Amino acid sequence: MHQVQVMSLFLFTLIGNVLSGSNHVFQDLKDREGVLSFLEYHAAISPSSSVTDKPLMVGLTLIQGADSSGAVCLDGTLPGYHLDRGSGTGKDSWLVQLEGGGWCNTIRNCVYRKTTRRGSSNFFEKQLPFTGILSDKAEENPDFFNWNRVKLRYCDGASFSGDSQNEASQLYFRGQRIWSAAMEYLMAEGMQNATQALLSGCSAGGLASIIHCDEFRELFPQSTKVKCLSDAGMFLNAMDISGGHTLQNFYSGVVSLQEVQKSLPSTCIDHLDPTSCFFPQNLVAAVRTPLFLLNSAYDVWQLRSSLAPPAADPHGTWKECRQNNAQCNSSQIKFLQDFRNQMLDAIKVFSSSNQNGLFINSCFAHCQSERQDTWFADDSPRIGNKRIAQSVGDWYFDREDVKAVDCPYPCDNTCHNLVFNDVVSNITFSQSTRLTSTPLNLLIIFLVLLCSIISTGFKFVR
Ligand SMILES: *[C@@H]1O[C@H](CO)[C@@H](O)[C@H](O)[C@H]1NC(C)=O
Ligand SMILES: *[C@@H]1O[C@H](CO)[C@@H](O)[C@H](O)[C@H]1NC(C)=O
Ligand SMILES: *[C@@H]1O[C@H](CO)[C@@H](O)[C@H](O)[C@H]1NC(C)=O
C-alpha cells in the first residue's frame, strides 16, 4: 500500500509536469534528476519486512528570518527542517541529517527545480516519515532513536554549498547560507547544549556532510563528541563507459554556476581546481573530524547516471545491466569491478586513520541509512554478520573499530539490490505490494497506464 502511494505521488508530479509543459522539463525528469529524486524519495518510505508500525511522521518547520541573511531556496522561499525532540538519555544528543536530491548545473535545470520541492519550500512535504537512522523506535534504530533528530531540507541544488545568484532568472544559489542559518537556528533550539552530535546525510546530502563536517565540529566545544556520517556520498570522478567524464562535466557546471569554490576547503582548493574539490575523493583524507563512509561499491545512482548513462550508451548495450545487476555480462561486471577498485583506492588514505569508519558493501544500492530495511531489520545487509546500524553505532560510540569492506560482487547474499523497470505498469517495489480496487487505487492504475511508456519504475529484490 505504502509503496503504491509513493509511486502515485511520483506519477502525479510527472503528469503535472508533462501537462504543464515544456519538453526540457520532462527531459530533466527522465534524466539523472528524476532517477535520483525517485530513488531518494523512495529511500525514506521503503518496504520493510520486519516492522509493522507506521513510521513516525514529523512536521516541517520553516526557518523564519533566514531570508534576512539571504539564506533562501532557489526560488527565494524560506528553508526548513523537520525535528523530532530527543528524550531520556538522548535529550542532549543531536543527529542532523542533510537531505539529498541531486544537483542543478545550468540555469535551465535550476529554474526547473524552483517548481519542485528540490528548489522551493512551497513544495516541501508538510510532514516526512522518520525511518532508519531517523526512526524513534529502539528496535529500528538502536543507538539514535531517542536523540534529537533533524532532517534539514535540501533546496539549493549544490549540496548546501553554493553562494551566488542569477538576477535575470531570479535564482538564489544560497546553499552555504542555508547551512549556516540552519545551524544557528538549531543551536538556539537546544543544540548548543549537545554533549554528542552526528552530522549525517545521503547522496547529495552525503557529499554535503563531508564538505561541512569540520564546520559542524567547530560549532561545539571540544568536550562535545562530534562525528560525521556520509551515506552514498562517495561520488567518484570516474571515466564512463564511452571514455567520457559525465559526472565531472556535470559537477563543473554546478560548481561554476553556484560558485561552490567559496565553500570548499582551502586544503584542496590550493592545489586542485574547484570541480575536483567537489569530489569527495579529494576531500575525505583531509577531514579532521571522525568520519564514517557508508557506500555500496556499485552505487546504483553512479552506475545509472555517471558510469553508464544513456547518453554514453547510444546503442543501449548497457540498458539491461543498468536496470538490473543480474543482467550484466562478464565484461560489464569487469568494468564494475574496476569501479569498485577505484572506490577502494580513493579511500585508502582515509581508512588508514583509526578515527574513521567504513562500510563498503558489494550491493547495488543507494542510500542505506534512511531505509528501514537496509539500516536495521532482521534481513538487512551485513558485512561479517554486522548490520549497518550496528556498524555505525559501534564506530560512533567507540565500541569497536569498523573498517568493513565487502568481498567483490557477487559474494554478498544479504544485499537489497535495487532493480529498475522501464515500464511502470510492472511496478513491484517489494514482495508486499498489493493493488486493491479503492477509487484512489483505480485512479492510480489509470495514471500508471498513462505513464507507462514514459517513466521509470523500480523494484526491490533480495
Ligand atoms: C542550555 O543549557 C542551559 C543550562 O542548563 C540552559 O539554561 C539553556 O536554556 C540551554 N539552552 C538551550 C538553547 O536549550
Ligand atoms: C557484454 O555486453 C557488451 C555490450 O552489449 C558487449 O559489447 C560485450 O561483447 C559483451 N561481453 C561478453 C563477454 O558477452
Ligand atoms: C516484470 O518485470 C520482470 C523483471 O524485469 C519480468 O520478469 C516480468 O515478466 C515482468 N512482468 C510483467 C507482468 O511484465
UniProtKB/TrEMBL annotation:
Keywords recorded for this protein, A-Z: Cell wall, Cell wall biogenesis/degradation, Hydrolase, Membrane, Secreted, Signal, Transmembrane, Transmembrane helix
Primary residence: secreted
Gene Ontology biological process terms from the UniProt entry: cell wall organization
Subcellular location: Secreted, Cell wall
A cellular component term, taken from the record's GO annotations: plant-type cell wall
Membership in a protein family: Belongs to the pectinacetylesterase family.
Identification of the protein by name: Pectin acetylesterase
Origin species: Populus euphratica
Taxonomic lineage: Eukaryota, Viridiplantae, Streptophyta, Embryophyta, Tracheophyta
